[in-house]
UniProtKB/TrEMBL annotation:
Keyword Metal-binding annotated: yes
Record's keyword terms, sorted: Cytoplasm, Hydrolase, Metal-binding, Zinc
Gene coding for it: ACY3
Domain Succinylglutamate desuccinylase/Aspartoacylase catalytic: 1-85
Species, as recorded: Homo sapiens
Official protein name in the record: Aminoacylase 3
Length: 198
C-alpha cells in the first residue's frame, strides 16, 4: 500500500484538507487517499469514532514486524498531522482544491477448491501494484496447477490491499476501487470564541 491515507468519505472536509497537507509536504511518498465508506453503509473502523478521523496505513511491512524505516515515516507523518491541527487552531484558512481519491467498488477472493482451500495465489504481475490500473484481460492469479486466471471485469479498476495477510481469513485477495476526482471546499479560518465578560 505504500503510504495510504484512509478516511471515511469525501465529505469529511477537515480530513481531506489534512490529506492534501500531507501530500504537499511529502510528494515523494505518493500519499494515496482511500475513502472506505460506501453510501448508506455504517462504519466500524477505529477512525470513525472521531469527528474527522484519518487512518495512516504504511508499508510494505509484514505483520508482527517493526521496521525502523516505516516506524520513522509514521512518526514524521503524525508530527505533520499535529502541525496541521495547530495551523488550523491558530486560525489559518485553507483554499478549495481538486483531489484524487479511490473508493471501493468490489472485493475479489482467491481462487478456491470445492472444499474452500486456496487453489492459487496473487499473480506476480499484480503483486505490489496497489493503486495501479488493472485492465480487463490482465493476469490476477497464478493457479497452483500453473495456469493464469485473468481479470474478467468490463472496466479498469485500481486494486488495493493486494494479498494482505490480515485478509486471507476474510476471503479477500484484493479490493477493487475506482479512481475519481472531486472538489474539496475551502476551510475558513476559525473564528475566535468570545471572551468571557469580567
Amino acid at each position: 500500500m505504500g503510504t495510504c491515507l484512509i478516511a471515511k468519505s469525501s465529505h469529511e472536509v477537515f480530513a481531506m484538507h489534512l490529506c492534501r497537507h500531507l501530500q504537499l509536504q511529502y510528494p515523494e511518498l505518493s500519499c494515496q487517499v482511500f475513502l472506505y465508506q460506501r453510501s448508506g453503509e455504517e462504519s466500524y473502523n477505529l477512525d470513525s469514532v472521531a469527528k474527522n478521523g484519518l487512518g495512516l496505513e504504511l508499508g510494505p511491512q509484514p505483520q508482527g514486524v517493526l521496521r525502523a524505516d516505516i516506524f520513522s515515516r509514521m512518526r514524521t507523518l503524525v508530527a505533520t498531522v499535529l502541525d496541521f491541527i495547530e495551523l488550523f487552531n491558530q486560525g489559518t484558512a485553507f483554499p478549495a482544491f481538486e483531489m484524487e481519491a479511490y473508493r471501493p467498488v468490489g472485493v475479489v477472493d482467491f481462487p478456491r477448491t470445492e472444499a474452500g482451500h486456496l487453489a492459487g495465489t496473487v499473480h506476480p504481475q499484480l503483486q505490489d501494484r496497489d493503486f495501479q490500473p488493472l485492465q480487463p484481460g490482465a493476469p490476477i492469479f497464478q493457479m497452483f496447477s500453473g495456469e493464469d486466471l485473468l481479470y474478467e471485469g468490463e472496466s479498469t479498476v485500481y486494486p488495493v490491499f493486494i494479498n494482505e495477510a490480515a485478509y486471507y481469513e476474510k476471503g479477500v485477495a484484493f479490493v477493487q476501487t475506482e479512481k475519481f476526482t472531486f472538489t474539496v471546499p475551502a476551510m475558513p479560518a476559525l473564528t475566535p470564541a468570545p471572551s468571557p465578560a469580567s
